[in-house]
Specification:
With about 210 residues, the protein is of the alpha+beta class. The protein has two domains: about 5-135, no CATH class; about 140-214, ACT domain (Alpha-Beta Plaits, 2-Layer Sandwich). The protein has seven helices and six strands; from the N terminus they run αααββααβαββαβ. The chain has helices at about 5-25, 35-60, 65-80, 90-110, 110-135, 160-165, 190-205, and strands spanning about 80-85, 85-90, 140-150, 170-180, 180-190, 210-214. It has a four-stranded antiparallel sheet with strand order 4-5-3-6, with helices on one face. Strands 1-2 form a two-stranded antiparallel ribbon.
C-alpha cells in the first residue's frame, strides 16, 4: 500500500472514530458534538502523521509535534469546564475531548488496533454507562437549587432542618451577599420524590424570595 493510501486510511479511520464518539455527545446536546469530535480526532491524527513524516525526512524527534497535541487538547478541555456558584459541569466533555485526541493520535501513528480498541471502549462508556446513570437517576440524583433570600439574620437558619426533614444530602453550598439580599446555591442529592418535597418546602419558607432548580 502506498504512502498516500496509508495516510487516507489513517485519517478516514480517525474521522469514523470521532464520528462514533461525537454522535453520542451530539445526542446529549453537549457543546462538543459530532463535528467537534471529528475535527479533534482528525486533527490529532494529522498532527501525528506530520510529526512522523517530518522526523523521517530530517532525522528529528517524532515526538515533538505529537507532544504539543496534549497541551493543545488541554486548553480545549479547560474551555469546556464551567464552574458556576459551586457547581461544576463539562468534566465529561473535557475528558471526551482528551481521549478523542489520543485515539486520533493512535490512528495517525498507524496503530489501528489500539485506535479501534480505544474507540470501542470510549463509545461503550458513553453509551452504556449513560443508560446505567439514567437508571440510577431514578434511585438517587443530584439537583441544584438557587435561592434569593430576605436579608435577615436567620434567613439561613431553617435550611439544614428542611434538608434533614426531606432526607436529602447536601453535597455543597455557597452563599453570596448583596444589598438586595442573600444568594444561596445548594447542591443536594436524593431521590426524585425527596427533591420534589424539598422544592415544595423551600418555596414555603417565608424568607425565600425566588427559587430556581436545575
Amino acid at each position: 500500500m502506498g504512502e498516500l493510501a496509508q495516510d487516507i486510511l489513517r485519517l478516514t479511520a480517525a474521522l469514523l472514530a470521532g464520528g462514533v464518539i461525537g454522535l453520542e455527545r451530539e445526542s446529549q446536546d453537549k457543546p462538543a458534538g459530532l463535528r467537534t469530535n471529528i475535527l479533534i480526532c482528525v486533527g490529532a491524527a494529522l498532527f501525528a502523521l506530520v510529526s512522523g513524516r517530518a522526523a523521517a525526512a530530517s532525522g528529528g524527534d517524532p515526538n515533538r509535534i505529537a507532544a504539543q497535541i496534549v497541551t493543545g487538547v488541554g486548553f480545549l478541555g479547560a474551555g469546556a469546564i464551567i464552574q458556576h456558584r459551586g457547581a461544576v459541569s463539562g468534566l465529561t466533555t473535557a475528558a471526551t475531548i482528551w481521549i478523542v485526541a489520543s485515539i486520533g493520535m493512535a490512528f495517525g501513528c498507524g496503530r489501528f488496533a489500539l485506535g479501534v480498541l480505544g474507540t470501542v471502549l470510549t463509545a461503550a462508556t458513553l453509551f452504556g454507562l449513560g443508560l446505567v446513570e439514567a437508571r440510577l437517576a431514578g434511585i438517587r440524583t443530584r439537583a441544584t437549587f438557587e435561592l434569593e433570600l430576605e436579608p435577615v439574620a436567620d434567613a439561613l437558619g431553617g435550611m439544614e432542618a428542611v434538608l434533614e426533614r426531606c432526607g436529602v444530602r447536601r453535597v455543597s453550598s455557597s452563599v453570596s451577599k448583596s444589598p438586595q439580599g442573600l444568594g444561596l446555591v445548594l447542591v443536594v442529592a436524593g431521590t426524585p420524590e425527596q427533591l420534589a418535597e424539598l422544592h415544595t418546602r423551600l418555596l414555603a419558607l417565608p424568607d425565600v424570595r425566588t427559587l430556581r432548580r436545575r
